Amino acid sequence: MSSLRKTGLILAIILGLADVVLPFVFGDTPEGQVGPPPIITYLGVALGVLTLAGVAWYWRRFNKGAMWLIGVTRTISALSGVPAFIFGAAASIQVLVAVFIVLTIICLVLLFRRQPAPQPPGRSSLPAAGDSRSHG
């Protein structure tokens, strides 16, 4: 596994844990403020748990299905935060959601980036000196 993919998985763990823990840290929306309906909060917790399960599954088996589970759960989680901008949530919540969306995009790019094909031992990707193919 490449170091970029490991970084993406670690970022997925952080985002998944945030999905699970943050609703309990912030609690219910105070009276008079705009906040997510409870179903969105429960959805976020479920998506966080599924993300963590997908990371564990991938780390043990390197399964492509696990990668898709992580990708789908992270995408839905990020999109579930968009209404914070539409319905005028507090500025601090909007900043938090924006940071989570950017981190999710970075996570997905790291996870789904195509890995370069490994070169056979002893072969260089650069043409050898005097190689006629290098002159067109």
Structure description:
This protein is an all-alpha fold. It has one domain. It is 66% helix and 0% strand. It is built from five helices and no strands. It has helices at 3-26, 38-61, 64-79, 83-86, 91-112. Helix 1 runs antiparallel to helix 2 (38-61), helix 2 (38-61) runs antiparallel to helix 3 and helix 3 runs antiparallel to helix 5. The chain starts with a helix and ends in a 24-residue tail after the last helix.
Concise summary:
With 136 residues, this protein is mainly alpha-helical. The chain is built from five helices and no strands.
What features would you highlight for this structure?
136 residues, mainly alpha, 5 helices, 66% helix, elongated
Which structural category fits the helices and strands? mainly alpha
How many DSSP H or I helices? 5
From the spread of the alpha carbons, the general shape counts as elongated
Number of domains: 1
Cα Rg: 21 Å
State the helical fraction. Answer: 55-70%
The span between the termini is 36 Å
Low-confidence stretches: none
- Whole-number mean pLDDT: 83
Query: How much of the polypeptide forms β-strand, as a percent range?
Result: under 5%
Helix and strand pattern:
HHHHH
